[in-house]
Structure formats: C-alpha cells, structure tokens
Amino acid sequence: MLLKNHSGFILECGTDEAGRGCLAGPVTAAAVILPENFKNSILNDSKQISEKKRMLLKPIIEEHALCFEVSHVYQEEIDEINILNASILAMHKAIEQLQTFPEFIIVDGNRFKDYPKIPHETIIKGDGKYLSIAAASVLAKTYRDLYMDKIHEEFPMYNWKKNKGYPTKEHRAAIREFGITKYHRKSFRLLPEQLKFPL
C-alpha cells in the first residue's frame, strides 16, 4: 500500500521523470500534488504496471490531482547539459509551472538540486512508496510515450511506438542501418561498438 504523505505538509508535491536511459527523445518529468483524501488501489511505480493501466490512470490522476504539470527537456539540451542535469531541470520546470506553490517536494531517486524556497527530500524507489511520486511517474511515462508515438510517424523504421526510444536490439539495429535522426541523443553511446577501436 503506497503512503499518502512523507513530510506532514498538506501541499506536498511528488516528482519523477521518465526516459533517462533512452537513446532518442526527451527526458520527461511530472510534478503532482494530490488531495489528502486521494485513494487508488492500482496506482504504483509506472514500471510495475502495464501500459493499459497507465493509460487508465492518466485521466484519473489529471482529474483528481490538486494540480499537476509535465515538462519535456529535449535531446539537444540533454547533449548540452548531460542526462542527470536534464532530468533535474525537467522536474524543476514541472514544479515551476504548478498552479499551487508546494510546501514540500518529494523526489524519486537520490539526486536533486535545491528548488528555490521549497524544502525537498530524495527518496530511493519513492515511486513505489508514495502516491504522489507514483502519480508523477505515471504522468511522466504516459506523456513521454505519447510524444514518442507521435515522432514514430516521422521515422517509423526505429519503431519508437514500441520501444519508446530505449536501447532495444531492434532500435540499435535500425541505427546501424539508417544512422541517427534529429531526435537521437548524440552524447549517448548509441551503439556498443562506438567504444571499440579497430586495431
């Protein structure tokens, strides 16, 4: 059973990101403040539930949250500032857009940078412990997946509709065959042989 609150503050915001390990597309973060009486038996870390359940949860979270925001940081910026900084930036941007100013922020994982004027705590595997982080993980994942489905239409040979930009065998085979697109992260090791030098 996921916990409702960590800090004791009513306006506690949960934040999480999706797409850190992908070879293409943005890293996407969501920030969510849930009402005190929010309950949902299906909601969990987005990696633990099926795509169908995530899509069912998306409108429920959007309807019941006190407020939520989602933010993308795209591949050009990821290449410029690195994926960790881009992930934190995406979370900061989502928090910044919230219509209600949070009193406390709980963050999935162990890395975050101070957000101005709001105390925070990082929680390892927080998306499997707290409802608001789980809700943020579901929104980040579903919004990012929908974005990847959209750009799939432009470059169907990489099958982003299925792999969402993650480094699957199929995605890497397509990079070998067709090269990279404007959506690929150039600072990432896109193919394992990139690190092997011919003798």
Strand order in space, largest sheet? 3-2-1-4-5
List the total number of helices: 6
Shape-level CATH architecture of the domain at 12-144: 2-Layer Sandwich
**β-strand number:** 5
Our Rg estimate from Cα atoms comes to 17 Å
Q: Identify low-pLDDT runs.
A: 195-199
Helix and strand arrangement:
Elements: E1 12-18, E2 27-33, H1 51-64, E3 67-73, H2 75-81, H3 83-96, E4 104-108, E5 120-123, H4 131-152, H5 160-163, H6 169-178
Parallel strand pairs: 1-4, 4-5
Antiparallel strand pairs: 1-2, 2-3
Q: What would you note in describing this structure?
A:
With 199 residues, this protein is an alpha/beta fold. The protein has a domain at 12-144: Nucleotidyltransferase, domain 5 (2-Layer Sandwich), CATH 3.30.420. Helices cover 36% and strands 15% of the residues. It contains six helices and five strands; from the N terminus they run ββαβααββααα. It has a five-stranded mixed sheet with strand order 3-2-1-4-5, sandwiched between helices. Helix 1 packs across helix 4 and helix 2 packs across helix 3 (83-96). The longest helix has 22 residues, at 131-152. The radius of gyration is 17 Å and the shape is globular. Its EC number is 3.1.26.4.
